[in-house]
Amino acid sequence: MPVPLAPYPTSPVSFAQSPANGAQGQLVCLGCRNLLLYPAGATTVCCAVCNAVTAVPPPGAEMAQLVCGGCHTLLMYIRGATSVQCSCCHTINLALEANQIAHVNCGNCRMLLMYQYGAQSVKCAICNFVTSIGVSIPFVSHV
C-alpha cells in the first residue's frame, strides 16, 4: 500500500520531473496527492489508488505556484495559466504573473496586501478594512 505524501510537494521543482529517454517521470496525483510514476511519452496518468486522471505537463514546461484562496493548499501549475482549480476544495484561483500584481500596506492593520495591478481598492482579509489604491504622483524636486 502506498504511503501518502504531504499535502503538497516539499520542493517546487519536484512536482513534475520529465523523464529522460526510456526513463520514468514523476508527478503528484491530483486526487489523493500520491507520487505517480509514468513512462516517457505519456500524456495522462491514472492513479491506482483513487483512479483520478492527472495530465502530464509538456516536456520543459515551467511550473509556478500559488496558495489556494479557499483552503490555503499550495498549488502548482504550468506558468502562463490564467486560472487554477484547487483539487481539494475546487476553488478557482486567479493566476497572476509577477508583472500583474502590486503590493500595498493595509490602511488599518498595516498587513502587506497583494492586489491585481489597476485595482482601485483592496480589502484586507485580516481586519476587513478597505484600502484605496491612490495614483502616485512622482515627486519633482526644484533646485
From TrEMBL:
Q: What is its main location?
A: nucleus
Residue stretches making up the Zinc finger LSD1-type domain: 29-53, 68-92, 106-130
Q: Which InterPro entries match?
A: LSD1-like (IPR040319), Multihaem_cyt_sf (IPR036280), Znf_LSD1 (IPR005735)
Q: Name a single GO cellular component.
A: nucleus
Keyword Nucleus on entry: yes
Is Nucleotidyltransferase among the key words of this record? no
What keywords are assigned to this protein? Nucleus
SUPFAM superfamilies for this protein: Multiheme cytochromes (SSF48695)
Q: From the Swiss-Prot or TrEMBL record, state where the protein is found.
A: Nucleus
* Name recorded for this polypeptide: Zinc finger LSD1-type domain-containing protein
Q: What is the lineage of its organism?
A: Eukaryota, Viridiplantae, Streptophyta, Embryophyta, Tracheophyta
